[in-house]
Amino acid sequence: MNKIDQTLISALRQNARASVTELSHRLGVSRTTIRTRIDKLQESGKVVGFTVVLEGDDDDQPVRGVTMIEIEGKGNDAIVKRLSGFSEIQAIHTTNGRWDCVVEFATQTLGELDDFLKRLRLIEGVANSETSLYLATVRSSRGARR
């Protein structure tokens, strides 16, 4: 991925609905270049989709945060597969260092969060976990903040 692709992706993260003309002016390249780059990014799998973030999306599930998970032995794939079935989980990231996975979650209430964490900790092979709640989101690539 070159500098134009990186700048294009940054622009699309800020506004995925920006027109090809708008993007070409912003990046200082032709409309054909923009269209070709977007097509290639999609074909290569680097860009897998576009989304809409609504004004109230953060409010729909006000209890949000991350749980870092330590996994015993070599059960990483099995645990990631089990985690994929949790409706509260928005993203699963495998990592290096002390924690093997970082899970982003969202629930309606603290009670739902408590239930989610109890079920997560019962998964065989989960050795340890640590959870942090998001207090405020000041910047997100999911959409522009006002």
Question: Can you give a write-up of this model?
Answer:
- β2 and β3 form a beta hairpin.
- This protein starts with a helix and ends in a 13-residue tail after the last strand.
- The chain has a four-stranded antiparallel beta sheet, with helices on one face.
- The model has no long low-confidence stretch (mean pLDDT 87).
- It is elongated and about 55 Å long.
- It has 146 residues and is of the alpha+beta class.
- The protein is built from six helices and four strands.
- The protein has helices at 3-14, 20-27, 31-43, 57-60, 76-83, 110-121, and strands at residues 63-71, 89-94, 101-107, 126-133.
- Helix content is 39%, strand content 21%.
Annotation keywords:
single chain, 146 residues, alpha+beta, four-stranded antiparallel β-sheet, 4 strands, elongated
